[in-house]
Design a protein that fits this description.
This protein has 306 residues and is of the alpha+beta class. 48% of the residues lie in helices and 13% in strands.
Length: 306
């Protein structure tokens, strides 16, 4: 007689494993420890075989019958269901290692020696927020242009057009990395170039030469936080990026040689940068020393203090 859920639940363990038949080669094996395992007995090319279908109750009676039916269909098609299960497992494992998020994190790791820590963090943050939720679990070869476009359009709809463009570029770079490492053959993101409407950039006008004197006069007269005023002067005198100035360390400055050596790890291009210091810049640094407290520009003073 066919099994019922009640009969399965009431089946008690015995000293030795025993079987409860459901019919058509499907049965439940009850172990001495109380485990209940679905099994399907078959013959393929004259050889007997047993296919494991899962553990009850995770695999219900109806689920087990469906799995047994699928195995019988495979046998009718000349397919060994046990071998097909092994092959499907291998395919699933390969797909898991090809998941977009895993490949993306590997790609990101490869770029760290070329990027500043701050840029590396921003890149990963953008992927974690805007790409992984939709695409992270998909194998890279399964990514299509519509899937990627849908992800990018979500970013564009919230008004973050520049972010959308950057994320698209990063997705494309990740897929290109997958192709280079033999895990993909096509890059559908390339076909989406131009799909995001470009945001019109309004550049701030340059300060006319004739207004420089007035600019410096007002800069000195305004009631600004003194380190901010000094920083603005230093930017004008050194032509560095604001981020490079904000993260500067006192040990980078050699006042005797009138040089500021910015290490490679803080530069966008990952190369050290030498900034000559004018007399005015040196005077500003001298003024800044007692004012910066525990900020980034005060570390040398802290170490040298008794």
């Amino acid at each position: 007689m066919a099994l019922t859920d009640l009969a399965i639940r009431q089946a008690k363990p015995q000293d030795k494993p025993y079987q409860l038949a459901d019919g058509e080669s499907l049965y439940l094996e009850v172990s001495p420890s109380g485990g209940k395992l679905w099994r399907f007995r078959f013959r393929f090319q004259g050889k007997a075989g047993i296919l494991a279908l899962g553990k009850y109750p995770a695999v219900s009676l109806s689920d087990a019958r469906q799995k047994a039916h699928e195995a019988r269909v495979q046998l009718a098609q000349g397919i060994n269901p046990s071998q097909a299960k092994k092959e499907a497992k291998v395919v699933a494992q390969i797909a898991a290692t090809n998941a977009f998020e895993l490949v993306a994190r590997e790609w990101h790791e490869k770029q760290l020696d070329r990027w500043t820590p701050d840029h590396a963090r921003r890149v990963l943050d953008s992927l974690e927020i805007d790409a992984f939720p939709d695409l992270g679990k998909l194998p890279v070869p399964d990514l299509t242009a519509p899937l990627i476009l849908n992800t990018i359009l979500k970013i564009e709809k919230r008004g973050a057009v520049e972010t959308a463009q950057r994320v698209l570029q990063r997705i494309s770079a990740i897929i290109r990395f997958a192709i280079q490492t033999g895990r993909a053959t096509d890059n559908p993101a390339v076909n989406l170039v131009g799909a995001i409407r470009a945001k019109k950039v309004e550049h701030r006008p340059a300060l006319p030469r004739g207004e420089l004197r007035e600019f410096y006069r007002r800069l000195a007269a305004e009631q600004l936080y003194t380190p901010t005023r000094i920083a603005m002067h230093l930017l004008m005198l050194t032509f560095v990026r604001p981020g490079e100035l904000r993260a500067a360390r006192w040990e980078e400055f050699d006042e005797e040689r009138a040089e500021w050596r910015i290490p490679a790890e803080r530069m966008k291009m990952r190369e050290p940068h030498l900034v000559p210091l004018s007399r005015q810049a040196l005077e500003l640094l001298k003024e800044l020393r007692p004012l910066t407290g525990r900020s980034a520009l005060h570390q040398r003073q802290l170490r040298e203090s008794p």
